[in-house]
Amino acid sequence: MLRRWFCCFSGELEAKPRSNKGHDYPWEAYTLRELVHATNNFHEKNKLGEGGFGTVYFGQTSKGEEIAVKRLKAMTAKTEMEFAIEVEILGRVRHKNLLSLKGFYAGGDERLIVYDYMPNLSLISHLHGRRAADLLLDWPRRMKIAIGAAEGLVYLHHEASPHIIHRDIKASNVLLDADFNAKVADFGFAKLVPEGVSHLTTRVKGTLGYLAPEYAMWGKVSEACDVYSFGVLLLEIVSARKPIEKLPGGVKREIVNWVTPLVERGRWEHVADPRLGDKFDKAQLRNVVMVALRCTNGRPENRPPMLEVVELLKSGVREGRTKEVVVMKKEMREDDDDGWRD
Ligand SMILES: Nc1ncnc2c1ncn2[C@@H]1O[C@H](COP(=O)(O)OP(=O)(O)OP(=O)(O)O)[C@@H](O)[C@H]1O
Ligand SMILES: [Mg+2]
């Protein structure tokens, strides 16, 4: 399939956009002119963010569609490969919790990937970035995002064929649509897992703070590496702490090493993001933290598969709600009693 795409990369895409909608792949081959126009010539004001792979710009097509365009930094063999993998893998996946490919442009030295624009940007911008002060992530939203991202990973690990290991699960790669649904993005580092293979050995890619130890040390990659990164992400979602924090004196502390002693001493409420105040469900918080600690177990074989993680998260939310209803009913009864006494 890749070879077929690369045949298209010879520059002939300057012609009219060729749509694959309704055919094999639901993406479009955009013209450079259209994307230059949509992003106001990649104007600084349109910049949404910058990553290792390139810069992302907001754009609006002539049809009025809002798009995000990722522009590759410099053309090297490495970036060309990441572009090809991203396009190849995104062309295969369709799931409500994965950011799908809208189209791309490849010609000359330009490599551009087009996605749907996500109006609520990425999880990182709400936890630590420019949207953090808006306090838009209340507790139910955080749970919805955690479960959504987990469901995206279930699709990659258990439903896609061949299975896909993402290898770069982190807060900046979880984007949020207008209704705060999570969309897992960035497949430039992803690996396809051939049938019957339990793990692969590769060069280490990904982001410090999220890397499973067996992967960071020996390059041993399996679905359990994504589970580890997801565990770190869960802790980040509930606490709004960074995966690695620099302590005074320059010592670095990983989020798991911060949470573990708090849990051991039963000081759960200290794990929650202080900005939530007391507006979080304590039972749900405990459940999420316990799931996160299982996901970040040092031994990959002890980590739960993503299917189980989703079940654990969902049942925690259900139980939390049941408890809430019981408490509410109790409070209502007490109110009634008070009324009667008056
Ligand atoms: N479809 C999109 N809609 C809205 N904003 C987006 C979209 N895609 C990316 N962004 C924004 O652009 C930023 C940069 O994304 P990018 O994937 O290039 O880098 P990163 O995830 O921060 O780092 P890395 O290159 O290590 O993955 C994101 O944090 C996000 O805020
Ligand atoms: Mg990214």
Automatic annotation (TrEMBL):
Protein keywords: ATP-binding, Kinase, Nucleotide-binding, Serine/threonine-protein kinase, Transferase
Family statement: Belongs to the protein kinase superfamily.
Species, as recorded: Phoenix dactylifera
PROSITE patterns: PROTEIN_KINASE_ATP, PROTEIN_KINASE_DOM, PROTEIN_KINASE_ST
Domain Protein kinase: start-end pairs: 42-317
Official protein name in the record: PTI1-like tyrosine-protein kinase At3g15890
Residues where ATP binds: K70
Any one GO molecular function term: ATP binding
